[in-house]
């Protein structure tokens, strides 16, 4: 992983710990649970226990770390942070209580163990964050006005040569370049900001409009993949009932062409919506390029790669030289960028593929083989 982004993740965990105070919430539950054990049948004490549990749930469920972007999630997973934060921590609390529902004192002891382990974890986080700060260890995160595309690419141990990496990056370049041209023709080629190993983690500088394009394309591709999976599941269910039905054969035939047809249809739709040039020949070339790009994206995300997009709007700068009309335009632009950033933050799941690659792998390979071009 990248040290600067790891430092950023550690800081986020430290901030989370200080703002949510999970140790105190667990202690409140333990205290009220002990009161319940000492005063069985006391309604007010039972209500206090329920309230302490509910307050803990609300606090932990509201954490933004419950739904991190793929690269941050990968970092949290690598240090086993997930079980000490948010929903997973509350699940542990609920399980401990449910496992000892008839013995509050045992539940209290189980919660004490969870509290101890959680405290130990965050002691380490606090220590690391403080040491990194004192040593001025590299720190990297987005600044106001910056936008980036993040790629998390599974690393195959049998494909770790420079040639393999060159091929992988070439495929991503061919996948993203048509999207950049379509959504922001004036944008420069995507520039690598960060690249680290283990799994390949790559951050690319981009414009806000390019982020919108990547988000739109990946989300729409995901919808196509989900439709393919749902259709495959339907065919499988029907096949168990009537193995040799003509209707099933028709569905199989339609399913085999569905990926190719839907991706081509999406490519044409996006180009028709976004292309502003007057060169019909280039427009048709772009439709072909977008078809290949979307197919590559579908293949990558369905076999383990993740794409994320993120931006922080620039601050609104007041200038005495600007007219009132200019100031209004700047405020409107700022509002649009803020809205885009919020929309991207609120739709992280839209870019994630959660199905089985087995359901779509063969279909996508057929399309890729048909359109294969030499690297």
Structural notes for this entry:
This protein folds into 2 domains: 3-134, no CATH class; 173-371, no CATH class. Helix content is 66%, strand content 7%. The protein contains 12 helices and 4 strands. It has helices at residues 3-20, 22-38, 43-61, 70-78, 86-99, 104-134, 162-183, 208-241, 246-274, 280-301, 324-346, 361-371; strands spanning 147-153, 191-196, 200-205, 306-311. A 4-stranded antiparallel beta sheet has the order 2-3-1-4. A hairpin with a 3-residue loop joins strand 2 (191-196) and strand 3. The relative contact order is 0.10. The model has no long low-confidence stretch (mean pLDDT 89).
Helix/strand-derived category reads alpha+beta
Oligomer: single chain
Main sheet makeup: 4 strands, antiparallel
Mean pLDDT: 89
Strand residues, percent:
5-15%
Q: What is the radius of gyration?
A: 26 Å
Shape: globular
Count of alpha and pi helical runs: 12
What percent of residues adopt helix (DSSP H or I)?
Answer: 55-70%
Q: Strand order of the main beta sheet, please?
A: 2-3-1-4
Note the gap between the termini. Answer: 28 Å
Features of this protein?
single chain, 375 residues
List the helices and strands and how they pair.
Blueprint lengths: L2 H18 L1 H17 L4 H19 L8 H9 L7 H14 L4 H31 L12 E7 L8 H22 L7 E6 L3 E6 L2 H34 L4 H29 L5 H22 L4 E6 L12 H23 L14 H11 L4
Antiparallel strand pairs: 1-3, 1-4, 2-3
Helix pairs in contact: 1-6, 2-3, 2-6, 3-5, 5-6, 7-8, 7-10, 8-9, 8-10, 9-10, 10-12
